[in-house]
Amino acid sequence: MHTIPNDGWIAVCRLDDIPPLGSRRIQRPALPDAAPVALFRTSDDEVHALLDRCPHQGGPLSQGLVFGKAVACPLHHWTIELRTGCAREPDEGRTPRFEVRLVEGQVLLLASELASLGTEPIAPSACGRRC
Q1: Main-chain phi, psi angles of 12, to 5 degrees
Q2: β-bridge partners, 3
Q3: Mean pLDDT of the chain
C-alpha cells in the first residue's frame, strides 16, 4: 500500500487484481487485530469496499458470492448490499463500508477510514434463525 500525495488516499491494489464478480481481501498493516477490508468488483467494473465481516455472525464476506450489486455471506446466505453494507430484508444489520476511488487502474481507500472503521470487536446481531 502507498499513499497518494496530499489527499489521504492509499492505493491498495489494481483493479485487475480483483476478478470480475469477485473479491480481494486487504489487511490493515497498522491495525493487525482489526478485521480486514473486502474489495468487491461488479460485472461492470464498479468497486465497493466493506468490512470483511457479515453483520449476522461475522462471516467472511470476501468468501461470498458476488451477484449484481450484492454479496451473499458464505455462512448463512445473508445478502449484503455492496453500496450500503446493509443486509437485505427480511434480515437486518449493516457492515461498515469504505469510500473507494479508481484512479488510472488503481483502487484507492481513505487512510482515515482504514484507521477508524470496523476496529471494534466482533458483535454479531441476533437474527432469530436456527444456526
Answers
A1: -110, -20
A2: 10
A3: 88
Report the pLDDT averaged over residues 101-123.
88
pLDDT for the residue numbered 2: 52
Task: Tell me: pLDDT of 129 over 60.
Answer: no
- CB–CB of 68/80 below 8 Å? no
The residue among 2, 1, 40 whose CA lies nearest residue 18 is: 40
Full-model pTM: 0.86
- The secondary structure of the chain in percent helix, strand, coil, rounded to multiples of 5, reads 10, 35, 55
CA-based torsion, 52, 55, 58, 60: positive or negative: negative
The C-alpha cell that represents 42 in the structure block: 461488479
Q: Determine the residue type at 7.
A: D
Q: For the CA atoms of 19, 122, 9, 3, what is the dihedral angle to 10 degrees?
A: -90
